[in-house]
């Protein structure tokens, strides 16, 4: 039972980390795009 919780928590944490990383990358891309104009 506990092993299942640990695995689910690990996957949700890695997914959240990847989403935050992608969001930061997209944000930087927007900033660079508007700075060029």
Radius of gyration: 16 Å
- Strand proportion, as a percent range, falls in under 5%
Global outline = rod-shaped
State the major sheet: none
What is the share of helical residues?
Answer: over 70%
Counting H and I runs of at least 4 residues, what is the number of helices? 1
| Global structural class | mainly alpha
Mean pLDDT: 94
> Low-confidence parts lasting 5 or more residues at pLDDT below 50?
none
Query: What's the β-strand tally?
Result: 0
In sequence order, what are the helices and strands, one letter per element? H
Spatial gap, N to C terminus: 55 Å
Keywords: Membrane, Transmembrane, Transmembrane helix
Transmembrane segments: 6-31
Can you characterise this structure?
With 37 residues, the protein is mainly α. The model has no long low-confidence stretch (mean pLDDT 94). It has 1 helix and no strands. The chain crosses the membrane at residues 6-31. Keywords: Membrane, Transmembrane, Transmembrane helix.
Question: Layout of SSEs?
Answer:
Layout: H1 2-36
Keywords: Membrane, Transmembrane, Transmembrane helix
Transmembrane segments: 6-31
Based on the model shown, name its key terms.
single chain; 37 residues; 95% helix; transmembrane helix; membrane
Short synopsis of the structure:
The protein is mostly helical. The protein has one helix at residues 2-36. The protein starts with a helix and ends with a helix.
């Amino acid at each position: 039972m506990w092993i299942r919780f640990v695995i689910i928590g690990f996957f949700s944490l890695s997914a959240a980390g990847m989403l935050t990383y992608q969001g930061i990358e997209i944000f930087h891309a927007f900033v660079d795009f508007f700075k060029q104009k």
